[in-house]
Design goal:
With 174 residues, this protein is mainly alpha-helical. Helix content is 80%, strand content 0%. The longest helix has 34 residues. The protein is elongated and about 55 Å long.
Length: 174
């Protein structure tokens, strides 16, 4: 049965619509992170992605409380933006012939996703504050902070370890 189209007539409608979309995005990302953990070579990168996976799972769980309070019964099952980000990371991963370069690629892709999500959660927090929904605003703000923390960890790892290895990969000659 086709999904009923809900009109976005108010800021509150927009917040609910966006929450459906970014929760679907989190579910899509959660599934991809499981695969990316196994593909990372750097143990530090694996650890950061595992931490990020746990954060994403927590986000999904916390957003369920928002849905209950908003009486939202269904999610959009596919977030096209997140799907495009995930496909881009996977495609680049296949093109990388060196393990260190694949790790650099993975970091860059996850950071692009982080930046998208930072913007999304910041906007949701602003909408919620405008609507007087302080509890929800705090929830979205915390999700934004979590994304910034992962982004910072990935930046440090890239700058001080992974990118240098990817710059001059070790070539093994037969």
């Amino acid at each position: 049965m086709p999904e009923t189209v809900n009109r976005i007539a108010t800021l509150h409608n927009l917040l609910d619509h966006d929450a459906r979309k970014f929760t679907s995005a989190e579910i899509q990302l959660k599934n991809s992170l499981e695969d990316w953990i196994s593909k990372a070579i750097s143990l530090k990168l694996k650890s950061i992605i595992q931490k990020y996976h746990a954060i994403v799972k927590d986000h999904v769980q916390l957003f369920e409380e928002f849905f209950e309070s908003e009486q939202i019964l269904s999610l959009n099952l596919n977030n096209r933006v997140m799907h495009a980000f995930i496909e881009e990371v996977n495609e680049k991963q296949k093109l990388c012939s060196d393990a260190a370069t694949r790790d650099a690629c993975l970091i860059a892709g996850i950071q692009a996703i982080n930046h998208f999500k930072i913007s999304t959660y910041g906007t949701a927090a602003a909408f919620a504050r405008t609507l007087g929904m302080e509890k929800e605003a705090a929830l979205f703000h915390q999700a934004e902070v979590n994304e910034k923390q992962i982004d910072d960890r990935l930046t440090q790892l890239a700058e001080f370890e992974v990118n240098a290895k990817a710059k001059t990969p070790i070539e093994l000659h037969a």
